[in-house]
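G.,

No rush on this.
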Amino acid sequence: MDVKLLSREIRNFTSGYPYLVSRLCKNIDEYLDKDWTLEGLKKSIKMTLNEYNTLFDDVIKNVENYDEIKKVVYEILVEGREIPYNSFAYEKAIMYGILAESNGKLVMHNKIFETLLYDYLIAKGNVQDIAGDITQIDKGEIIDAGKLDMEKLLLKFQEFMYAELGKKE
């Protein structure tokens, strides 16, 4: 095992966040047959990002509960904007360990949170786009005598799915 290389890479992905460091090491040691290589570390990172844990749950809840955090995270990750660091303006995001400072700019605290939140924001946007498309149905098309006509609703959903699948080909 190249201790210096692995410790540098673990630090690179976690910024020293204690839970993340421990989790990556635990995955390698217990679930990846002690594969203490860069490939093993990559597998551990993927494993960690794909598992449910209270840290990720809290990070996402903090982004969802505070519009100012969500807005700046979206601007940084999705829009690629550079935002000047100001600890007073972004106090909550910094306090929760979501954002940090680098060279006078506001950045994601670590690459694992960056990946987690980018994937989350993109997936959530896709779900909302699809939900918006589905709900653009004239109520008169699926309501009959004040009651929901399930057969008409399912036919409309079928039309929507055919249209969506056709877009992807």
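When you get to it, here's the other one too:
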Amino acid sequence: MKIKSASFMKSAVKIGDCPIHECKEIAFAGRSNVGKSSLINRLVLRRALAKTSNTPGRTRLLNFFLVNEEVVLVDLPGYGFARVSAQMKEEWGEMMSNYLSQRPNLVAVVLVVDSRREIGFEETSLVEWLHERDVKVVLVITKVDKFSANQLTKRLAQFKKSCPYGIEGVIIPFSAKTGEGRDSLWKAINAVIAE
């Protein structure tokens, strides 16, 4: 996709705070520090549209970004290893659950998994939960620049074996550093938007 414009719209802490618009939304979900914000920045070819950090748990709100005046990308807080209180983790869980189950504009979730980790219970549960609600899931494996081509082929084969029910289509290997996978991810997003 040719990026003509990409801008921050709004941050929201609850479903009632979400921006009102007519565009379809694609949400980005994954563990803390998996590279969701970096992925979004590479996807829209902007260095600092979505705020990034090496500290897990920096994204604490639902962040909405309007791309080409036609699609909204939503950066969700990460789950898992964030150094925050149990209460905040519970609030994040409730915020994301409400957004994912109640947002009428949502058409797909890009599930982001670090290529050096395994698909765990959280990912499997999320995919099954979304599948029950007819929300499409696109699986993206990030930080693939850490592997040689041969290692990556083996790693992707392992991911395909452990893919949870509800993941359809290909697994997209992605590198925010090199841009690998950007075109494939836009192709998957555009296919979902067109449905």
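Residues 37 and 50 are 5 Å apart (CA to CA). Helices lie at 36-43, 86-102, 121-132, 149-162, 182-194.

Enjoy the weekend,
O.
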